[in-house]
Amino acid sequence: MASDTTVSLWVKAEPFSYGAFHIAPHPRLNFNNIKKIVIYAKNKGDTGFPRLSYSVWRHIACNKLHLSEELAWLYFTTCHLLSENSSPVERLEWDHKYAQSSTLGKDAMKNRITVTTLKFVLFLYIQQLNKVSLKASLVAGDEWPTRASSPDLDSSGRSTPRNNNKVLDDHSHMVFLQNNIHEILELLIEHDSYGSNQGDLSLTVSAVEALGFIIAGSVDRCKTLLPIQDIAMLQTLQHRSGYSKLMKSFSLRLLQNWIKDSLVQNPFGISACIASGRRLSWPMGGEDNKEAKEAQAKRGRIATNAHAVPKEHMKGNKIIIMSQVGKQTIARSSSTLEHSSVKIHRCHSAYLYLLSPLRSVTIEKCRNTIIILGPVETHVYMSHCEGVTLIACARVVSISSCTLCTLHLLTPNPPVILSGNDSIQVAPYHTFYPKLEEHMSDVGLGADKNMWDQPLCIGPDHREETPVWELIPVNDFSTFVVPFELEGPTKEIPGGLPSKYQRAVSHRHHQINLWQKKMKEAGLAREQRKEFQGLVESRFHAWLSESGHKRELDSLVVPSAGKKS
User: Fold this and answer.
1) Could you give the CA distance from residue 130 to residue 176 in angstroms, rounded to a whole number?
2) pLDDT tens profile 438-454
3) Residue closest to 136 by CA, chosen among 148, 124, 125
4) If you average pLDDT over residues 289-294, what whole number do you get?
5) 345/421 same-domain check
6) CA 273 to CA 267: how far, in whole Å?
7) FRET label pair with 136: which of 4, 75, 431, 465, CA 20 to 30 Å apart?
8) Is 210 found in the same domain as 176?
9) 188-to-105, 126, 205, 365 alpha-carbon distances in Å
10) In angstroms, rounded to a whole number, what is the distance separating the alpha carbons of residues 160 and 331?
11) How buried is 206 (Cβ within 10 angstroms: 0-12 exposed, 13-18 middle, 19+ buried)?
């Protein structure tokens, strides 16, 4: 049996990193209103509790809380994605049927989706993670209110508290839970119905089970993971967790104290990976000079915690972090990369090809970098980037505080554009590699439903007269070629290109064919052809150097895309 000293509880990373949108929550999503949702849902019978249907939530969100229907749907589907174990086949079938349905059919399909009511209220509550705190700013002496800081990575890999973005901050997640555990549990309480002392507050086993949405735990130093309710009901822990076999419920007071006493930093989080992750020696192609290689050896760091995560709990816990990769090309398709949560941090002037099915991706503080991702099962979140081109197919894509970035997307949901962005171009997905469709099936993504051109803008700084995003102009569009030889059946872009962009590409190819035909019919002598060819090559090499593409081509000499480790 477990002893008290071996129990560890921690805050799960995914609900906070990808479920809590990085923007101040809607003012009506406060504790009192969220608590009323549980009461209202119970009054709605089977459509409200223990599972909440979208039809009931939409009524609450739009008519009671005055949220937009788009925001209501975003909250609901994000919670569903992070809390329900839908199979890839189920997601593919739903997307395909939805794409084929009429407007009424789409509404009917949405209304049939349900989530666990108590998990959903927890999801709504953790939106407070990004609430602007006037009190905290006053204590800190800041002139303007800010959000809590999170650790940054310096050149040695140590964390430094300089970044105002919470993506890398497991500590802030833990502090949030510690500071708000009473309200979190109070959202889940049911008053004692067995005649105990008046005012006693208790939680049912199912309520504590819902708490597992945001809390994970172990009793054997993380060799295996157990649901929090199973740990709390262990015979040797019941006196501390407050579980009563007679009442089949938990004392809120004792459970709260036990959770706070057992809370540790996430052993599978970013901070732990930085501190004790295994360094990955992925080959990097780049400039040949010795100085560039020495700089890369000092700065570029890639690490993973895959060796430390129990095999049956890889989802959401296996992490790869890439930090400060500069002026290099990395191309990878490997078992280590598959279904991992990737964090790309402070990379600059780099070309990153991560051609495996992925769980989630965070891209933070990168500059002048091209990032090509394999299909992403849940979220791609990009923040504080400049001049980054992202090429990705993912279930959810969101972006905040970015400038001069281009997003080439295949996504069944509207791209979420949060606050602080400027000069964002949205474009259709325009590449493929041989195993792309196989990888898309692995994560439950298809090409039937693609909403790349219908961004959802959230936040107070969006104005119709000065939009922060635009569709990529047709004249600026071209397809992208993945320059590696891989085996697989995919021979074209899944779903094809939108018609106007396809016409532009076809027109460009036609112009090239006309030029080649004209050269053949020009009747140039051998010396003239040689002279002309030399002139064209000279101008081409000059353009490669001026545009920076020469370095990109030179860096492709490292054939790393097909590696298996």
Assistant:
1) 10
2) 999 999 999 999 999 99
3) 148
4) 51
5) yes
6) 8
7) 75
8) yes
9) 34, 14, 10, 38
10) 29
11) middle
Measured in degrees and rounded to the nearest 5, phi and psi for residue 8 equal -130, 130
| 465 lies in the same domain as 345 | yes
Residues 226 and 342 in one domain: no
In whole angstroms, give the CA distance from residue 371 to residue 391.
Answer: 6
DSSP3 helix / strand / coil % (the chain, rounded to 5): 40, 20, 40
pLDDT tens, residue by residue, 8-49 = 999 999 999 999 998 888 889 999 999 999 999 999 999 999
- Residue 198's domain comprises 4-9+169-262
Provide the whole-model pTM. 0.88
Listing DSSP states for 490-534 in one string gives --S-TT---HHHHHHHHHHHHHHHHHHHHHHTT---HHHHHHHHH
Verify that 483 and 347 share a domain, yes or no. yes
Select the highest-mean-pLDDT range: 144-148, 259-263, 458-462, 533-537: 259-263
How many angstroms separate the most distant Cα atoms in the chain?
104
Local confidence band at 133 (pLDDT 50, 70, 90 cut-offs): low
Task: Match 């993380």 to its residue by tokens.
Answer: 222
The two three-digit tokens of residue 166, written as one number: 């919470």
- Per DSSP, the three-state class of 78 is helix
- Per-residue confidence at 514, pLDDT binned at 50, 70, 90? confident
Q: For residue 155, tell me if it sits in a domain.
A: no
Nearest-CA neighbor of 8 among 307, 275, 224?
224
Q: How many residues does the chain have?
A: 565
Distance (Å) of CA 416 to CA 53, 99, 284, 409: 23, 20, 32, 12
User: 189: pLDDT confidence band, cut at 50, 70 and 90?
Assistant: confident
Give the pLDDT confidence of 341-392 residue by residue, as tens digits: 999 999 999 999 999 999 999 999 999 999 999 999 999 999 999 999 999 9
From 434, 425, 413, select the one nearest 467 (Cα to Cα): 425
DSSP calls for 203-253: EEHHHHHHHTTTEEEESSTTSS-B-HHHHHTSTTTHHHHTEETTTTEEEHH
Q: Mind listing the pLDDT tens digit for each residue in 209-235?
A: 999 999 999 999 899 999 999 999 999
